[in-house]
Design brief:
The structure holds 2 protein chains of 2 kinds.
Chain A: E1 8-13, H1 25-37, E2 46-50, E3 56-61, H2 63-70, E4 77-80, E5 83-86
Chain B: H1 4-7, H2 20-24, E1 27-32, E2 70-75, H3 87-96, E3 100-105, E4 108-113, E5 121-126, E6 128-129, E7 132-134, H4 135-148, E8 152-155, E9 157-158, H5 169-179, E10 183-187, E11 205-211, E12 215-223, E13 228-232, E14 244-248, E15 259-261, E16 273-277, E17 290-293, H6 295-307, E18 312-315, E19 319-322, E20 349-352, E21 356-359, E22 376-379, H7 382-399, H8 405-414, H9 430-433, H10 440-443, E23 448-449, H11 454-463, H12 468-475, E24 495-499, E25 506-516, E26 522-530, E27 537-541, E28 544-547, E29 553-562, E30 571-578, E31 583-592
Parallel strand pairs in B: 1-5, 1-8, 2-5, 8-10, 10-11, 11-20, 14-15, 15-16, 16-17, 24-31
Antiparallel strand pairs in B: 3-4, 6-7, 12-13, 12-18, 12-19, 14-18, 21-22, 23-25, 25-29, 26-28, 26-30, 27-29, 30-31
Amino acid sequence: TDDRQDKQVYVVYMGSLPSRPDYTPMSNHLSILQEVTGESSITGRLVRSYKRSFNGFAARLTESEREQVAEMEGVVSVFPNKKLQLQ
Amino acid sequence: TTASWDFMGLKEGKNTKRNLAMESDTIIGVIDTGVWPESESFSDKGFGPPPKKWKGVCSGGKNFTCNNKLIGARDYTGEGTRDNQGHGSHTASTAAGNAVAGESFFGIGNGTARGGVPAARVAAYKVCIPTGCTTESILSAFDDAIADGVDVISISIGDDNAIPYEKDPIAIGAFHAMAKGILTVNSAGNSGPTPNSVASVAPWILTVAASTTNREFLTKVVLENGRTLSGRSVNAFDLKGKNYPLVEGTLGSQAKGQILVSRYPTISGTAVATINVDYKNYSSISPRPLSSLSQDDFDSLLSYLNSTKSPRGTVLKTEAVFNQKGPKVASFSSRGPNTLAVDLLKPDITAPGVEILAAYSPLSSPSLGDQRQVKYSVDSGTSMSCPHVAGVAAYIKTFHPDWSPSVIHSAIMTTAWSMNASDTGVASTEFAYGAGHVDPIAALNPGLVYELDKADHITFLCGLNYTSKTLKLITGEAVTCTGNTLPRNLNYPSMSAKLSETNSPFTVTFNRTVTNVGIPNSTYKSQIVLNHGTKLSVKVSPNVLSMKSVNEKQAFTVTVTGSGLDPKLPSSANLVWSDGTHNVRSPIVIYTSG
């Protein structure tokens, strides 16, 4: 089930960046990923980290991992990385 | 753009009032397919160094160089920011391209190609490859553009349908942009004229529909009997008036050396030219000579073919002609009502989006299967209307640098030209054009504005049943939803309400507050203009607002009563606040679930 074939990219939207001075978005994103995957190395899982203007990340997750992330504290929404079109 | 800005009254050169120092300090972020950096539209001749506020980078990839006009480039596709589709160069040059004289598509549409703010700077964020634009890339572009210090974001991208705000990358990005004082302008979508097709539905986004201008491209078909039929296409091929045999059919191979006449949208590779039926009602570039006739003219052509032993004719090169009917909302432009926030009118505004000539990328072809390479090309879509409004927003900001996104949003909507329901049915109501057609000059001086801040949007979201907990995360602030807020009381420049029943008598109220950005001592009187056939009764209380100072705010309530509404069409009116100088117009739209 953790075959790369079963994973797809999801966006994990976490709202505004916390104003706490000790908050580092990237390490928070990595620790969330480590927690849901149970893997110490999450190479290839993290696709993007949103950390300059708002908080969130994009990552390769299985369906059950997606469900787990969606339930986590601090997560607003989790949604598939779909393609939008030029208009 | 060789005609669209003139059409809107934003004339070339010194014929338009400009604040050049501020314009030069204005940065438009374009989230799209990148740009062609060598285009004259992005040349930095005469430009000084980037504004001090600029915090971005030039990271466009191999062989991509920025300059003092094109000050930033980022790539989220792996292809580099160089535009290989043409779309991003087109939209960026429409918003903020230099004024480049004598541009055309092989002589068609000749004029000065230019953006709304030619002295402004461009930052390109590439998120699209030919198969589409990923959600994760779009969010990255917003994340960077906001932090880089752009003033306005133009994004001509969207989904086919509205996505819930918390899962819509454009709504999410634009929300955080709004919180930092940056207005996001977005295309409404190209899924019209189907109702409920508008995809950009957040109140913190300025959503743009597409319309025609007073210029259209027509391609004549001249028959040997002397009759001339006028069709649509952007045909740069010159048959030099030579007549060829006309042959009816569906396969191009049947028509080698002849002109193929086919009802279907086929373009023959072997025929001299193709004549078919126009199903789109606007002109597009084709890789071979083409003219698309109206159904009546096509039938008339068939009658000529069937009654003549050796029918012959020719297709002429396209001409730009005066279009008395413009502006008219394009058929393809997505329509309301808004499916997510049913009491929020979308699209907001209309702008030129049909047959627009602007910069292009020579790496792309101007039409499918086309071998030509061009630096300027003609395209249509709400993609083209969106950067026109982004240019207007930036133009307003050059005169009013302290105006918030919502004030600019309001100024653009309340000063729009009225548009009429020129066709029958829901496709040509406010659900097509919103407040009307953008008027850049009037928008500089709106008199009164409907101002909104982050807290107002939070209240609106509470009304849509977002929880305090979710909203606290989104905004980073303590939020308490009281449970009695109605989305229609958002202080928006338009007023709309969806009723569940058609026949019952109803009363709907809208609470609004206007801010005086005009003359300190001014008295505004309200006027209600009912649209044709509307059975609404509208009262405004108070109906006179006496302003004593600039930035003074005054509240009022609009009460709409009625019964027996048409289940198929919205009922509408306009509220106009006027002090004799400014006319501040808001559409009022009541519709039913039918």
